[in-house]
Amino acid sequence: MNVNLFKDCEIAMESPLIEARRRFVSDSTVAVEIRLKPGGEIPEHGTPESVFFYILEGTGLLSIAGESAQVVPGMVSRCDADVPKSISNHSDALLRVLIVKMS
Fold first, then answer.
1. Nearest Cα to 38, choosing from 98, 97, 96, 89?
2. CA–CA separation, 14 vs 26, rounded Å?
3. Which of 11, 40, 56, 79 is the most exposed place for a label (fewest CB within 10 A)?
């Protein structure tokens, strides 16, 4: 069995307001947990893989292809490959998001 803690996973991105770690990696799937502190933002970008976002904790603003929505824990949203997306935390609490990339 393979189990891991966030602190023990490979760093995918790190800055004063963002910490992202790879929770799971296989040939066809990568799961990344992103922790956005208040004011943190992953700017608009595209990826060659389709992804889905699962909101674990907190609230934020998710934008996909120019359409934005407030997100809360339990929400899931899918984004196709090469479509611009961003996520930001404008609250005063931590935003935790699981992003799964599927090739």
1. 89
2. 22
3. 11
Per-residue tokens: 31: 């799961």
Q: Which residue reads 């929770």 in tokens? A: 23
% pLDDT > 90, the chain: 96
Closest-CA residue to 42 (of 101, 96, 103): 96
Query: Amino acid identity, residue 54?
Result: Y
Q: What domains, with CATH codes, occur in the chain?
A: 22-102 (2.60.120.10)
Residue 9: per-residue pLDDT = 95
CA distance 8 to 75: 26
Name the pLDDT band for 78 (thresholds 50, 70, 90). very high
